[in-house]
Design a protein that fits this description.
16% strand; 3-stranded antiparallel beta sheet; 3-stranded mixed beta sheet; 2 domains
């Protein structure tokens, strides 16, 4: 819903995922939420992750910055950030969610179940898959952050 407007200040998200590229202050204020030091710390902790970060990893990074932050604060902030479109979440392994800062364009991943390496899926490939689902099943996919898990070529070869 805010996808285009939040990246008004985006310079190069390929080099760094950062909430500094998002007008998060405006988005939170327009939706009636305060920008608190804890929320900024949690955004910093999300950005510090390489890709998708678990709740535990975000919590650990946030605690390094502010020892007073508790797990429930991080969890509630992540829920809020998702609602506002600042953060997206994915099911990493069926047991845990991963979080990352929303990018300006839809993006998709393959995640290896064994080595946990992430690979980006070209948007055109995902769009072709969505079109196939529409043609074959009459189903229109509305998600813009697809994550598929399996085995990467290296791990598959080792198996």
């Amino acid at each position: 819903m805010f996808r285009k407007s939040i990246f008004r200040y985006c310079k190069n998200l390929q080099k760094a995922m950062s909430h500094q590229n998002i007008d998060y202050v405006r988005i939170m204020h327009e939706n009636g939420y305060r920008v608190t030091p804890q929320r900024i710390t949690i955004l910093d902790a999300i950005c510090a992750g390489e890709r998708h970060s678990s709740l535990g990893a975000i919590y650990a990074r946030a605690r390094k910055q502010d020892a007073q932050i508790d797990m429930s604060t991080v969890y509630r902030a992540l829920e809020l950030f998702q609602t506002l479109g600042l953060v997206v979440s994915v099911d990493l392994d069926g047991h845990e969610k991963g979080y990352e800062i929303t990018k300006p364009e839809p993006h998709h991943h393959l995640i290896c179940k064994k080595c946990e390496q992430e690979f980006d899926i070209d948007s055109q490939t995902a769009n072709n898959f969505y079109e196939l689902l529409r043609r074959e099943y009459g189903y229109e996919v509305t998600m813009d952050h697809l994550v598929l898990s399996g085995l990467c070529p290296d791990c598959r070869e080792k198996s």
